[in-house]
Amino acid sequence: MAAFNLEPFMRTQQARVEALLLERADRLGPAGTPPRLAEAMRYSLLAGGKRLRPVLCLAFADAVAKASTDSAVVLDAACSLEYVHTYSLVHDDLPCLDNDDLRRGRPTNHKVYGEPLALLAGDGLLTEAFHVLAGGPEPVRGLLCAELARAAGASGMVGGQVLDIAADRAAALDYLLRLHRMKTGALILAACRMGVLAAGGDAAALMSAVTYGEAVGLAFQIADDVLDVTSSAEAMGKPVGADAEAGRFTFPAVVGLDESRRMADELVARAEAAVRPLEGVDGPLAALARYSVERKS
């Protein structure tokens, strides 16, 4: 059987996400947002990128749905994930954290709008995510808000960022695994769970999403660490080698390149097995798991 052809699927889904984000970003101005703030928020939100988190959300919704996944709650869930992810990038790039000049192939938000407005644009994106997600009558929206808040907050992405910048950060695999399950993995796991919840999936589907999301979230970060060593700024659309320069421990630094790749492959196999009951031997979710480690940027 031929492997699922991910490239046209990704093009279609990324275009779908871009259109959804543009539609929601257009609501910022009429809602009374100061024009310069709206411009800064749109600058980062609409800058392109892989859109992996909303695509995962939509793919899980499609896999479990008993009805159309063009429902407002599914689409809003997908968009809210990208709002939160983009906010995290804007803040990560600030001089007080990673101090990066390039993101998604163009100047970072604070290089264009200054540090104070970039900080506030990130705040605006984070809070707008919950405005988008909570903006409807469906009871499941409250549960989705809780999922997103947990993934983005102190026990998720923010907590992982704190572990990442800790002065006494340990050069140990268990520390690295904990850090990245929070910093990167929590939001990817939430994307998978939110897709199932928004589309009305059952408990078995939710368990598949958990196993898959945990595996892909970690595999994605391992691949990022490998690319930071082996790729270029031109290919990545952002600086490479920054972690090594900052003295931060990465998977290649702690376990080596070969073991990092082996770990990522093992996680992908686990993710593929988890979604077989939902889509058969091969489908978009299995292909997305492979993409998380085979990508070039």
From TrEMBL:
Gene Ontology MF: a single term: metal ion binding
InterPro entries the UniProt entry points to: Isoprenoid_synthase_dom_sf, Polyprenyl_synt, Polyprenyl_synt_CS, Prenyl_diphosphate_synthase
Gene Ontology CC terms: cytoplasm
Cofactor: Mg(2+)
Biological processes per GO annotation: terpenoid biosynthetic process
SUPFAM superfamilies found in the cross-reference section: Terpenoid synthases
Family listed: Belongs to the FPP/GGPP synthase family.
PANTHER family reported in the protein's UniProt record: FARNESYL DIPHOSPHATE SYNTHASE
Protein name (record): Geranylgeranyl diphosphate synthase
